[in-house]
Amino acid sequence: MKNRHFYLFLVWVCFTLFGSVLVRASESRRALPAVKVQPAFWWSGMHNPHLQIMLYGEGVGHCEVSLSTDAVAIDSVVRPANANYLLLYVNTAEARAGRFDIVLRDGKKTKRIAYDLRPRDTKTRAQGFDASDVVYLLMPDRFVNGDRSNDVVKGLKETTASQEPDARHGGDLAGMTASLDYLADLGITAIWPTPLLTNDMPSTSYHGYAITDYYEIDPRFGGTEAYCRFVDEAHRHGLKVIQDMVFNHCGADNFLFTDRPADDWFNCGSRYVQTSYRISALTDAYASASDRHNATDGWFVEAMPDFNQRNPHVMTYLTQNSIWWIEYAGIDGIRQDTYPYADRRAMAEWNKAVRAEYPHFNIVGETWLGHNVGVSQWQKGSKLVAQGDDSELPTVMDFPLMGLLGSCLDEETNDWDRGLARIYEYLSQDAVYADPAHLLTFLDNHDTDRFARNNEQADIKHRYRQAITLLLTLRGIPQLYYGDELAMAGNKSRGDGLLRQNFPLDPATTKPALEGEKLTATARETYDFTRRLLRWRKGNTTISEGTFKHYAIQHGCYVYARQKGDKMVTIIMNGTNQPSCLPLKRYAEVLPKSEAIDVITGRTVKLDGECLQLGVRDILILEF
Question: Can you list the positions of beta strands (E) in 119-233?
Fold first, then answer.
């Protein structure tokens, strides 16, 4: 009897286990494969209540879709040519913060995807940036390595990190966060890191411009949560954060390209056609249609497929992505890469969409043209474009001024066409710009020769001091490139990897090195000079908001002033290699008192004589 009961018990156990396996197998057959959802969540109370939810997974395009709530309405369901995608357009106007399910059904197979609508953050975010700021551009991989454990991340395609020029060097968000004290003390007010989004490419992934996931910070930089902590910590230090975004192209290993929704998501039918880079053709009244088409539709490089922004689904995806990062991470501005290469009208609508959600937000576009007429046509309100063709882009990059600063200070100034005379002539044409105060001005960046092409240039000390003075006191929003404050040198002819060298660090603390063998006398002097001017400029509304007045060059000297109310700052610069005696009577408009304090030296300068003695390449910043 005991044996009989034992055998019956064994049969019951086996039946129960076998039945459980059958149930799980049946449920598995009814379940749908994993689905990637972008954006993974959204917010209630947005200005634009319409939301695109991209669902990506094997065969998801065959599914019927419904929602578990009546508060969110389905506007439309779009099924691209690739059945691995489904685009769900919903209206959140009546929805409060909370969770609902997206329900997918394919025959007997069902999948429920929980989706969050979050409450909007009420903290001060999305501040924007303007001429009161000084922006610090850095390449995260080449700045400070604060966490060596993430230099190589298992599962990503680039499997090594080294000090080879084109390899990943290991800089990360931990290092950037650790450097916030340094940047705040220097007098910086805004930080622009080159792109931090995942670049899962097999090589040269360090630069960040071949994005493979638009909703993820690269784990080699520390990941998405580390980025949010960095933004919050920057705000606690009084620093704004500008995110570098790339809408023109993505990395060739982005799932949106390798398993694209449809061929019309990328230009030229998703086939590689090289752009000519001749973006002047886009605003050239005489340009051929083929030149215009190739400039904007051709791919930047083969490894970076070119998005088709004329496809409304593409542009909605990119627009929502930028809004997601603003709302989620609390960034304060956007720098948009290779701006004219993307479709002009689609990008204009993107600008309007962002500012509708965040009225004080600022966006700067990379507008790399060598002349002010070309650059000006990409700024919002340009007088040179046809009605209805406004770019809506608030801030453009003053590449022509960068070129002048990099060359004219190597020359001795005459009264007409050399040295500082070229700066005067360029600024005298500012009427071409709709808003000169919203030009991003700079000496160099990650794509150009450094301002110090080498450390053997004649008179590098005077050259740097004059350049920094001009940058920080002329109109516009000044931008420094990491290491400018240390007179770092770099020449593009040696390749981008060598151009983007590592920031000098103290090996004991892995913080910026301000002492020791790595810092030359020139670097130390440049740092001290830059820091003095940055800290003086911070909060100085005479410089950031004041009117601008300048004088034609005489005696090789350039004189200009900024004025707001009864406050004035007058800059006097000798552009020659000889001492100069500057006659003062001519400059009475900008010398309102008989003496002034020189910001650079702190000494009192007497202005009651007939002329003012200036040394070789001398600079005075007189504060009245």
Answer: 135-138, 190-193, 197-198, 213-217
